[in-house]
Design brief:
The protein is α/β, with parallel strands linked by helices. Strand 9 and strand 10 form a beta hairpin. The protein starts with 7 loop residues before the first strand and ends in a 6-residue tail after the last strand.
């Protein structure tokens, strides 16, 4: 199917592999950053602190398909802990854990497997034996970090960001997100869970809808492309 088909398409009429055949673009001077998240109708990204109750088999399949298109995954340390991140299924895929403080549990399978590495500041104390990308003094300089990922893996063309909202907010603030892939779960959940991004300054970054899918459980899968030029 066309990546610019904005009509809702039933997921039963197209495979996930066909719907997510490629990233929506590439950058020349840094990796393409594609955000992958799930959220409720009322905007929460978690139920009781984790995303599992918002997800579904199709949502998980979409995430895995998008991971197959990525060279590296980046994720905040809080999300790694809350979601219990382990080694990825795909051999060779690396997961960069973003933390300004440097507080990580180096004994978890994510790190002992060698799949995990840390993206942090110049000052953070990281246990020996873990690959580290350092960018920024007191806060992680995400743009510099993205262009330095080639120090811990083959120079990536596509990076998948998987949250949490604070990392997303920092990426939005730096205008580094090129593509958004969001699953809207057919639930309202109330509570105080954070929305897709948190902590960043006000901005008005325009995105264009590229694709809209719906499955037989009423989960909605949308793809959005950053439209740069003339906005905030």
């Amino acid at each position: 199917m066309s990546q610019t088909d904005r009509r809702p398409v039933r997921l039963e009429d197209v495979t996930i592999e066909q719907a997510y055949a490629a990233p929506l673009g590439l950058q020349q001077d840094r990796p393409w950053v594609a955000l992958c998240m799930v959220a409720s109708i009322d905007g929460s990204t978690v139920v009781n602190g984790a995303s599992a109750k918002l997800s579904s088999a199709n949502d998980s399949a979409v995430m895995l398909r998008l991971r197959s298109l990525a060279d590296v995954v980046i994720v905040g340390a809080g999300t790694v802990n809350a979601e219990g991140y382990g080694p990825p299924r795909r051999t060779g895929l690396r997961i960069g854990v973003v933390t300004a403080s440097g507080r990580i549990d180096a004994s978890t399978p994510l790190f002992t497997s060698g799949a995990g590495f840390v993206i942090t500041t110049a000052r953070a104390d990281i246990p020996s034996g873990i690959d580290v990308v350092r960018a920024g003094e007191d806060q992680v300089d995400l743009e510099a970090a993205l262009t330095s990922l080639g120090t811990v893996c083959d120079a990536p063309r596509v990076v998948q960001a998987e949250g949490g909202p604070t990392l997303n907010g920092a990426l939005f603030a730096a205008d580094l997100i090129d593509e958004i892939n969001v699953t809207t779960a057919p639930l309202t959940v109330g509570g105080t869970g954070m929305r897709l991004s948190a902590g960043g300054p006000d901005h008005a970054h325009r995105f264009g809808l590229q694709q809209l899918l719906v499955d037989d459980e009423s989960f909605v899968y949308s793809r959005w492309l950053r439209r740069r030029g003339g906005d905030g």
